[in-house]
């Protein structure tokens, strides 16, 4: 055999070997020990508007590229970031922040109060970031001092200072910034391959604690794609749905991080009278507007079974939409759910009877039947919708689960029940979910709760200091005679609290003891500075 033939055979063998390696799930993305590859941004989502905090980049999460005025600790207290100090007026209408001097953007321009004021004023105008409807304006008093003026008392506004990344006012362009962002945070933008990944490098000039890693690649893969990438050892961390939480991946551990996120179903509280919301879509549902229907579902649905099944044994039953770890949680509102007999009695007493024997109750000629929408991209929401519909059959209530994208769901959010995810360390989430002023405003108050007593508790909470406000936020759930809980208006059907599941490479320590409570969407990067490579990925 001549030399040429031998070389050819060797080449073929190499090709076959490589092909088999890939086929059998042994592919490996080359990366150094000081590099991170993660599929975990907001559970794998890609920001449509790019990396612009004014347009919603990393809402309620670590913005990475940009700095914030404050940051939240694991114990839900606030520490200063860009802020050197801050003060709040006695009426909670004015917040004043003094900045640390000498901080630079990555384009070497100085970050000053004008940049902060500009960021917040633009974010208010855009309406795409945090809810800043209570902000009149932000004003640069001098180079290092910015003042926030509010329409009404808001002791929880301090939370807004912890989540909006600051952009440079002189160079900001809302059409281009998201694709080429400049910030003062711990990471510098390198490139964005749309539909695939974003690459960041460590900001060597960052004023805070530096990461051990020099490069961060965030893959926009989720669900099965993220799981497969983990199995193929293509990354360090993969966020996966709870349906994968009991799976095993060689060389990786499953981390279940505590969250403040809950899953629940909105139940429109008013009749459909032909009224429409700001988008021209219908408001109200003639079935769920009947409190007997809402209470029967709250008492008859078995949340424990749902947490074991739909949430893969990782969930904890929830009755009010507020995670029990939050200081304003009202943990006295739990009921003995799964009580079929009580639920049927509620329906009978409310005039809902199955007169024709078809298994569906009716009242005044109206069948106890409605649609239930859910995001088809969220496996646990689909599982909740299907399981709730099956359990409701025993009560004599017909529920039709309908999966879709949010463009398909949006026209129905005020007229049909929807499976939602909520969760924030900002108590004003309660205001957006239940205050009557928020009816018909985007995703706010989808159940159309309109209760003056609930409104008064929310208003009182906003006018109290933050710690004192917790009891008023809790009273929204139940004050002994009134509230959104199952024993009250049963405004929602809340299901359970979830954890966030991440496959983490054995070579990586993500310092679980410093991880922040996960908000809606997940924020595994909150303690990124503490992550360490404890062994080589090439071992």
Short description:
Helices cover about 20% and strands about 20% of the residues. With about 550 residues, it is of the alpha+beta class.
List the helices and strands and how they pair.
Blueprint lengths: L2 H21 L11 E5 L30 E3 L5 E3 L2 E6 L5 E6 L13 H14 L8 E8 L2 E6 L36 E7 L3 E6 L12 E5 L4 H8 L5 E4 L11 E6 L4 E5 L24 H10 L2 H7 L6 E2 L22 H10 L12 E2 L2 E2 L1 E7 L3 H15 L4 E7 L1 H4 L9 E4 L6 H6 L17 H11 L3 H12 L14 E6 L2 E6 L2 E2 L22 E2 L6
Parallel strand pairs: 1-10, 1-11, 17-18
Antiparallel strand pairs: 2-3, 4-5, 5-7, 6-7, 8-9, 9-10, 11-21, 12-21, 13-19, 13-20, 14-20, 15-16, 22-23
Please supply descriptive tags for the structure shown above:
globular, 539 residues, four-stranded antiparallel β-sheet, D-Maltodextrin-Binding Protein, domain 2, Dipeptide-binding Protein, domain 3, alpha+beta
What does this 3D model show about the protein?
There is one protein chain. The protein has 539 residues and is an alpha+beta fold. The longest helix is centred in the first third of the chain and has 21 residues, at 3-23. It has helices at 3-23, 113-126, 224-231, 291-300, 303-309, 340-349, 379-393, 406-409, 429-434, 452-462, 466-477; strands at 35-39, 70-72, 78-80, 83-88, 94-99, 135-142, 145-150, 187-193, 197-202, 215-219, 237-240, 252-257, 262-266, 316-317, 362-363, 366-367, 369-375, 398-404, 419-422, 492-497, 500-505, 508-509, 532-533. Strands 8-9-10-1-11-21-12 form a seven-stranded mixed beta sheet, covered by helices on one side. The model is unreliable at 1-28 (pLDDT under 50). A hairpin with a 2-residue loop joins strand 15 and strand 16. Helix content is 22%, strand content 20%. The protein is globular and about 75 Å long. It starts with a helix and ends in a 6-residue tail after the last strand. The chain has three domains: 26-46 and 194-259 and 502-539, Periplasmic binding protein-like II (D-Maltodextrin-Binding Protein, domain 2); 62-169, 3-Layer(aba) Sandwich (D-Maltodextrin-Binding Protein, domain 2), CATH 3.40.190; 262-497, Dipeptide-binding Protein, Domain 3 (Dipeptide-binding Protein, domain 3, Roll), CATH 3.10.105.10.
């Amino acid at each position: 055999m001549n030399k040429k033939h031998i070389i050819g055979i060797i080449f073929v063998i190499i090709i076959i070997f490589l092909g088999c390696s890939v086929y059998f799930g042994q592919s490996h993305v080359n990366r150094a020990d000081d590099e991170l590859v993660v599929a975990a941004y907001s559970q794998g989502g890609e920001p449509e508007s790019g990396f612009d905090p004014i347009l919603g980049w990393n809402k309620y999460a670590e913005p990475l590229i940009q700095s914030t005025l404050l940051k939240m600790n694991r114990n839900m207290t606030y520490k200063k970031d860009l802020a050197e100090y801050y003060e709040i007026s006695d009426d909670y209408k004015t917040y004043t922040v003094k900045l640390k001097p000498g901080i630079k953007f990555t384009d070497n321009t100085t970050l000053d109060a004008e940049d902060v004021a500009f960021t917040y004023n633009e974010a208010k105008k855009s309406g795409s970031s945090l809810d800043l409807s209570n902000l009149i304006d932000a004003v640069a008093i001098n180079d290092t001092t910015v003042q926030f003026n509010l329409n009404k008392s808001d002791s929880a506004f301090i939370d807004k200072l912890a989540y909006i990344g600051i952009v440079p006012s002189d160079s900001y362009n809302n059409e281009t910034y998201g694709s080429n962002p400049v910030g003062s945070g711990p990471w510098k933008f390198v490139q964005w391959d749309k539909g695939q990944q974003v690459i960041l490098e460590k900001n060597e000039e960052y004023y805070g604690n530096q990461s051990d890693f020099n490069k961060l690649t965030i893959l926009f893969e989720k669900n099965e794609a993220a799981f497969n990438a983990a199995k193929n050892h293509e990354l360090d961390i993969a966020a996966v749905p709870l349906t994968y939480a009991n799976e095993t991946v060689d060389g990786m551990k499953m981390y279940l991080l505590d969250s403040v996120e809950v899953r629940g179903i909105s139940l429109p509280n008013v009749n459909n009278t032909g009224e429409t919301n700001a988008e021209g879509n219908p408001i109200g549902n003639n079935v769920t507007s009947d409190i007997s229907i809402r209470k029967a579902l709250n008492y008859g649905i078995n949340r424990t079974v749902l947490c074991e099944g739909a949430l893969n044994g990782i969930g904890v039953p929830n009755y009010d939409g507020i995670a029990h770890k939050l200081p304003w949680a009202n943990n006295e509102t739990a009921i003995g759910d799964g009580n079929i007999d009580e639920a049927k009695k509620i329906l009978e007493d409310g005039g809902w009877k199955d007169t024709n024997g078809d298994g569906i109750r009716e009242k005044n000629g109206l069948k106890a039947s409605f649609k239930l929408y859910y995001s088809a991209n969220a496996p646990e929401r689909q599982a909740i919708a299907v399981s709730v519909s099956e359990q409701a059959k025993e009560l004599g209530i017909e529920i039709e689960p309908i999966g879709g994208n949010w463009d398909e769901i949006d026209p129905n959010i005020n007229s049909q029940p929807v499976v939602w995810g909520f969760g924030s360390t900002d108590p004003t989430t309660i205001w957006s979910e239940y205050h009557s002023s928020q009816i018909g405003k985007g995703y706010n108050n989808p159940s159309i709760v309109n209760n003056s007593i609930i409104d008064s508790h929310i208003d009182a909470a906003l006018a109290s200091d933050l710690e004192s406000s917790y009891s008023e936020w809790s009273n929204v759930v139940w004050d002994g005679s009134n509230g959104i809980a199952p024993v009250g208006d049963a405004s929602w059907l809340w299901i359970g609290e979830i954890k966030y599941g991440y496959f983490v490479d054995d070579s990586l320590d993500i310092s679980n003891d410093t991880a922040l409570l996960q908000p809606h969407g997940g924020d595994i990067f909150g303690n990124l500075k503490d992550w360490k490579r404890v062994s080589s990925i090439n071992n």
